[in-house]
Write a structure and sequence with these properties.
Blueprint: E1 11-13, E2 27-33, E3 71-78, E4 96-97, E5 103-104, E6 113-116, E7 122-125, E8 132-136, E9 149-150, E10 155-158, E11 170-175, E12 180-185, E13 200-202, H1 204-207, E14 226-228, E15 231-234, E16 251-255, E17 261-265, E18 292-294, E19 299-303, E20 326-330, E21 336-340
Parallel strand pairs: 4-9
Antiparallel strand pairs: 1-2, 2-3, 5-6, 6-7, 7-8, 10-11, 11-12, 12-13, 14-15, 15-16, 16-17, 18-19, 19-20, 20-21
Length: 345
């Protein structure tokens, strides 16, 4: 059976409010137009932003402003992740946000709907009826308490050197809250055996290779990675509201085949001979949000935040050139191609 795509469904994120009487579970609701005329054979929403460029635009037209009011609930799936929080950590139920944008797999790997919970469990559903086909729980470390737990989505990638019958010929990549990069087989949820250590790369030691690292415990990975021609690129969030020494905001590239570390690009200028550069105890300019890519040009587009601290520039002297900017970086090498704004006067 062909899978249903965004001409037939759309997603609604339901926020749960814990109470003493009960804990409502986060739900993923999919609504179906009452009269379904046809099913498409292929998805047009394979990336977090719909396509590589993140345009969030679909040419599909079955649901439109004339009939959107006739949608009805087709099925409901409850992740149950709040129920699995240990009683001694029950306060964590107030520190989660259901922010995922699901993606759809191609038909030749099952056409499944893929999402992740705030605690980074990956779940594959049949988009027709909401039946769970498989799940993978990385059992992230809930301590130390870096901040809110959320998972905005995943990335998928087809290995051109593998037959589709081989494991992880089509992979899903997840950047987890506890600073791990995870790869699983898209058809089964099985960890990719050649990626890192049984599908997992611990990014923490790599982050520690670049100063500053004072607040590395508060750093989390929440947004989906970008994948360009076999290179995975990740950013990260950090607590940089009060202290200039927030963790560095570098973006990093890894091999989509085996998870090996390829490069890092420091988003702040560090040059002791340049009076406009920042000292190594200033962090931030991180990429907490999502990235877009242009595979044909081997580019990943990086939206950076401010250097730390967020609201007081006196502790981050210089032009902060690559902060609050869009950077175009060559995915294969990590080299900067251009940045905007580029007026540093």
């Amino acid at each position: 059976m062909t899978h249903m795509i965004l001409k037939n469904i759309y997603t609604v994120h339901m926020k749960a409010v814990p109470s003493k009487q009960c804990i409502k579970m986060y739900s993923l609701l999919l609504f179906l137009f009452i009269s379904i005329h046809s099913l498409a054979s292929e998805s047009d929403w394979m990336q977090y932003g719909g396509d590589e460029g993140g345009g969030r635009y679909s040419t599909l037209s079955q649901i439109n402003r004339d009939n959107v009011g006739q949608l009805e609930v087709a099925w409901k799936y409850k992740t149950g992740h709040l129920d699995r929080v240990p009683e001694k950590l029950s306060f964590l139920k107030k520190m989660v946000g259901f922010q995922v944008t699901p993606i759809i797999l191609p038909n030749d790997v099952g056409g499944l709907l893929i999402l992740c919970t705030p605690f980074n469990e990956i779940i594959a559903l049949d988009p027709i009826n909401g039946t769970k086909k498989w799940s993978y729980d990385p059992k992230i470390d809930l301590r130390p308490f870096a901040g809110r737990f959320s998972c905005r989505g995943l990335a998928q990638w087809r290995n051109p050197n593998l037959q589709l019958t081989e494991i992880c010929a089509h992979s899903l990549f997840l950047a987890a809250n506890d600073k791990r990069l995870i790869a699983v087989d898209a058809k089964t949820g099985t960890p990719c055996p050649t990626f890192g250590e049984n599908g997992v790369v611990d990014v923490t030691p790599i982050i520690k290779n670049m100063e500053p690292t004072n607040q590395i415990r508060s750093m989390q990975l929440k947004s989906p990675p970008a994948v360009v021609n076999g290179v995975i690129i990740i950013g990260g969030s950090g607590n940089k509201f009060k202290d200039a020494s927030s963790v560095n905001g570098a973006v990093r590239g890894f091999s989509a085949v085996d998870g090996s570390f390829l490069w890092a690009f420091d988003t702040l200028i560090r040059d002791e001979t340049n009076p406009e550069s920042l000292p190594y105890d200033v962090g931030g300019a991180n990429v907490w949000s999502t990235m877009s890519v242009d595979s044909d040009r081997d580019l990943v587009f990086i939206p950076t935040a401010s250097a730390s601290p967020n609201f007081y520039g006196g502790l981050r002297p210089g032009d902060n050139r690559y902060a609050n900017s869009v950077l175009a970086i060559k995915a294969s090498t990590g080299e900067l191609v251009w940045h905007y704004p580029n007026d540093t006067s």
